[in-house]
Amino acid sequence: MIKVAVVILNWNGRSYLEQFLPSVLKNSPDYAQIIVADNASTDDSVSFLKEKYPQIEIISNKENGGYAKGYNDALKLIKAEYYILLNSDIEVSKNWIEPIIEFMDEKPNVAACQPKILDFHRKSHFEYAGAGGGFIDKYAYPFCRGRIFQELEQDKGQYNDVKEVFWASGACMFVRADIFHKLKGLDNDFFAHMEEIDFCWRAKNNDYQIYYHPESVVYHVGGGTLHKSNPRKTYLNFRNNFFLLYKNLEKNQLFVVFAWRLVLDGVAGLKFLLEGNWRDAIAVIKAHYHFYIAIGSLKKKRKDLKHKKVAQIYQRNIVYEHFIKKIKTFNQLQQNKF
What is the model's pTM? Predict the structure, then answer.
């Protein structure tokens, strides 16, 4: 069995593989096997890999099932103690694997862990997708140490502590393979966005822990497959956030949380309209419509899941804290409310 499988999911990302694969090969220890899982790319990604990197194993998925299904299909074929789910648009640094694997070896209850994720284009600052470890508020709005909405902090060492968090970023997530399969992996219906938060919430509901470890550092481009300005991304974020809530919340919280989210999402849709982003406003409406259609299947999933009150959920509304109270950094939040 492989100790560590570094699995890079690729979809038409030849340019990213060409740019960033050398750093992964150079900075990974001998016990880590590098694997590319290709999501039915139509560019020359696969032929490029076969020609330039014949030592790299390629798993060819039959279709582009998105991030969730792409990884689920590939990881079924990989026997390893640990998986590292790594985006193709990430540059890794020296010693990026060892600190986290050593930490997880010592902490068998840790299901997943992420490194410090900095912005490839502005390496002094945290990057949107994960930053210094992920959290959600009581309405399941995600944010990070180092990133609240679009506010990205400069890395000044303020998050250089090993920290239990609520979710680890799917951009670079170390996950214990046996727990990944025990929890049935990622939810295919998410396609992309927030599936890692759903996985981490399920892990926490099963008494596992999620961590951030700053001694491992990577640099993420972000938005390589779906840019943040794309209405498709807006749709997936809003729809999947509702999937996330419905599947994982305690029963006694469902009604109140959903009532508030309807109001808050309505405000978000109105804001999009006032800013002239009518395609994003339509994406919010479509997200709600498709959530209601999916309730039947979500209800079946929910019955099979454990639900409990878990730590690391911020018991305030991050929307109000940021846009009304003008809180810009994680450390300005009320730490006793987690």
Answer: 0.94
